[in-house]
Design goal:
3 helices, single chain, 51% strand
Length: 540
């Protein structure tokens, strides 16, 4: 009897401890619709409608929704793709949507890339697809593209494939790149051969060429690539130097920006980018509002270190001249924010002795170019994997960590406006799962949406965050940053276990889709083989 009475007394206390949902957002539910299981999912928004593309083995389904009512309006399934085809990507080019897939032509020993346009309004494919590239022999992708993102990007959960397809900001062209596989894959003396082809919005080839890289695979690391609005292709490479024993080492290396002209009669152009007494640990390419290619990333003062002491940006004009290089240190205050006091003390002692103190395991995830004022936002996240070996089971397991977000705003003139660290502590055992974040903007604010532990709602800068375990429910929250000042606030959007009276499952930030400049939808599972859309709208 006493136990029952005690429980009854605790229930209202537990309820009152739950955080209040933000009045700055409005949340509404759509109507359930039949679930479509798929390993690969894409979502797009255009003219008040939502298109989802779900790919599962040989089945490709195109689902349509009304973005206002969240009503499911229908689906079309296709199974007419070549057997053993490989899905490559879906790319939006000037409000047109292209589905890319490749096929290995075994008799002719050719890699072939096909494109098939999607009619967004009808939610169907326009044609049967056409071949746009044929490569003699095997080829492979050269890495991810699409570094820069405006406020209306799409997402994918596909990985690296054979062809890399990208379009530049405000471009009516798209670029296809691939790397020809060498005959002897184990020979580090191979010279990479990169194919670069530019197409117009009708998927007609404008020009293209295969370029032999100026350095061997052993000497050159391809870090990133980009296309500008004119259709010029660029590769950012780390060029290593030989040590006393004749081995190529990262120490003493420099960056080179390679321009790959499409015309066969023009030579590859190299621009060397050097950094005095600094080592570049992470670098990206992106195009600013003036059409200049910018190299940006993390640097540190150590040799071959993965830590970050600050950010750098080098502007290169269309003639290949380095216009400027700027550095922005990460302050000890930001580094010590929301970490244990013992770690803060160690960092302070290191800095007092002139030793390097930096952020560890931070990866640049996005660079957002703001068309209104020419500024850009650099977003990095602490992202790492830890292995755990058990001598009892003789097995190795892994935990996946997605933690603090570092956000930096650089003005059009290349001046640091503000730098903020957003505390976050997520851990899981099944890959990314429902962790990491989703960026969106609304009015004069930037938002970072993610799942958090309820104990962190009122977290102070002096406190270490409580850990959120992936798959254990959680509250969807949003950090809000003022575009001008960088002032931070936090909003609680909803509890996964009680969204308008409904518990939802299988939340994933990659299933969040930005609609207009103030709202987004997320697709979740509600059991009974049904999915449902949740719409979240920022009210100010």
């Amino acid at each position: 009897m006493k136990k029952i009475l005690l429980l009854a007394m605790l229930i209202p206390l537990f309820i009152s401890a739950q955080p209040l949902l933000s009045k700055n957002f409005k949340v509404e539910l759509g109507k359930p619709y039949p679930v479509v299981d798929a390993d690969i999912k894409y979502q797009f928004y255009h003219n008040g409608e939502i298109l989802m593309v779900k790919i599962e083995d040989e089945s490709i389904q195109l689902l349509k929704f009304d973005a206002t009512s969240l009503k499911f309006t229908g689906t079309k399934e296709y199974k007419d793709f070549p057997k053993s085809y490989i899905f490559e990507d879906i790319v939006e080019v000037a409000d047109r949507y292209y589905f890319f897939y490749s096929y290995w032509d075994k008799p002719n020993k050719n890699e072939r890339l096909f494109v098939r346009e999607i009619d967004f309004s009808k939610g169907s494919f326009v044609d049967k697809g056409k071949k746009i590239i044929s490569v003699d022999g095997k080829c492979s992708g050269v890495g991810y593209s699409g570094n820069t993102t405006n406020n209306y990007g799409f997402f994918s959960i596909a990985g690296i494939s054979k062809f890399n397809i990208s379009s530049s900001l405000n471009s009516d062209k798209f670029m296809v790149q691939y790397r020809k596989s060498p005959e002897n894959k184990n020979d580090s003396k191979n010279f990479d051969k990169i194919g670069t082809y530019i197409f117009d919005m009708d998927a007609k080839q404008l020009y293209g060429n295969v370029h032999k890289m100026p350095y061997t695979e052993e000497q050159m690391d391809n870090l990133d690539y980009e296309m500008d609005w004119k259709g010029n292709a660029y590769i950012l490479a780390r060029v290593k130097v030989k040590d006393e024993k004749g081995r190529y080492k990262v120490e003493g290396s420099h960056l080179e920006l390679l321009l790959l002209p499409g015309e066969s009669n023009k030579e590859l152009r190299k621009t060397e980018i050097t950094f005095k007494d600094k080592f570049v640990s992470d670098a990206w390419l992106f195009e600013n509002v003036y059409g200049e290619i910018v190299t940006g990333g993390f640097y540190n003062s150590k040799k071959n270190s993965s830590s970050a002491d600050g950010l750098f940006f080098s502007h290169v004009d269309t003639d290949g001249e380095v216009l400027s290089t700027r550095y922005f240190d990460i302050s000890l205050e930001i580094i010590n924010q929301n970490i244990k006091r013992s770690a803060q003390s160690k960092n302070a002692k290191k800095e007092s002795k002139g030793k390097d103190v930096g952020l560890v395991n931070y990866i640049i995830k996005q660079i957002i170019v703001n068309d209104d004022d020419g500024s850009f936002l650099v977003i990095a996240e602490r992202d790492y994997i830890v292995s755990h070996y058990s001598s009892k089971t003789n097995r190795t397991t892994y935990t996946y960590h997605y933690e603090d977000i570092l956000v930096t705003k650089i003005t059009e003139e290349g001046v640091l406006s503000w730098m903020k660290k957003l505390p976050k502590l997520q851990k899981g055992t099944k890959g990314k799962g429902g962790m990491s974040y989703k960026y969106m903007s609304a009015g004069s604010n930037h938002y970072f949406v993610y799942l958090d532990n309820v104990k962190n709602i009122d977290l102070k800068h002096t406190e270490v965050p409580n850990r959120h375990m992936d798959g254990k429910g959680g509250f969807l929250v949003a950090y809000r940053l003022d575009h001008e000042t960088g002032e931070i606030s936090k909003d609680v959007l909803f509890d996964l276990r009680e969204v308008k009276g409904m518990e939802v499952y299988q939340f994933n930030v990659d299933r969040i889709l930005m609609l207009d400049n103030s709202e987004f939808i997320v697709e979740v599972y509600k059991k009974k083989k049904q999915d449902i859309l949740i719409k979240v709208k920022a009210l100010n």
